[in-house]
Amino acid sequence: MLKNIVNRGCIKIMKKVIRIFFVILIVFSLTLSGCRRNEEKKSNENRNDYEQNQTENAIYENDLTIKERNDEEDNNKNNEQNEITNEEIMNGQDKEEGSKEETEQEKGHKSEYDSVHEIDLEKVKPNESGKIMIVMFHNFVESFTPTKYDKGEYTMTFKAFEELLHVLYEKGYRLISFKDFLDNNISVPAGCIPMVFTFDDGTSGQFNLIEENGELKVNKKSAVGILLEFNKKYPDFGAKGMFFVNLGTNVFNGKGSVAERLKYLIDLGFEIGNHTYSHINLSEVKSADIIQREIGNNQKVMYELVPGYKMFAFSLPYGAPSGTLMEHVKRGEYEGVEYENLAIVEVGWNPSPPAISREFNASSINRVRSPGINPERFDLYWWLENLSRGEQYISDGNANKITIPKAKIDLIDMEKLGNKKLVTY
Ligand SMILES: [Zn+2]
After folding, report:
1. pTM here?
2. Per-residue pLDDT for 368 more than 50?
3. Rounded to the nearest whole angstrom, what is the distance from the C-alpha of residue 285 to the centroid of ligand 1?
């Protein structure tokens, strides 16, 4: 009996234990499966995130590709525009056909400058060993009546100057600075002919300032005023020129101080050169000291008026050389101020070889006289009639290349080439 009771009790306990075990098992397995599901969910989420990232990256990369492609297209467009602009500058001259067939790699090896400046040599016929006219101007006036003493040989009317600019522009002349002429750094469009303007004596017809509402302005009735107006209509002509001044005399009479006048000209991009302090005739000077005083003092006063402005070119007053004392014209010193004239210009009468030519002599640079009131032999209009295109400097449109017909090779001074490329055809 007792045994039965114990057995029944044991069975009950056993049943309870088993039930509890199952409950725990179910709860555990439920929990476990929940975690796994969460993990799966998490992993799915991660995968989704990853996939999404991948997609986003792909989209981003696509964007980049599209952007890069767009950039490339833009660049191409810009290049095309550059080419169009340069083509326009070249006055519609054809580019070499071969250049269009170049591969991208080939283009990469060439500098941008080379690739946009190719010209049809046979059509343009550049000759960068040819003559350049450095024009010498003196006086400009509203009207002029010749007298027994002054026939107006060195004088032009404002109207005649303006007409001259039109003639020069039509004939393909373009202005370069004296410095660029001297450095053979000539940058005019292909087929054009460079020209240098020089003005002696600092006369007010060349340049003077007027006052308008308390402001200093260039008088439009002056050569500079006319040139600036002309350049507004024809910007590729260039508003450049060298003014040889005597600072011991009246310089550009008009409004403003001499310092203001000089600074105004320099700020406009014009150049100032030395012409002695008092316009002395150097052929009559027998002393090196006087030459140094005349040239050195002019530079000294220049420093006082425009601090730091060093004149590098010299115009012989009256075109008179100083014989054996020429070395003192080139360089010297006065009251602690040193001067050096890298270029010395004469008064007449011929076009000049370019600086790259063996025939060029920086100490004796020829100039062509401006037209006067009456036509004269060897004045600018005479040369425009008598100097053939074949004798003149015809630009290849690229300042880094010197392009000449093969037959002209002996004219080139190879030592002056520097890092410029010589091209013959
Ligand atoms: Zn003079």
Report:
1. 0.74
2. yes
3. 16
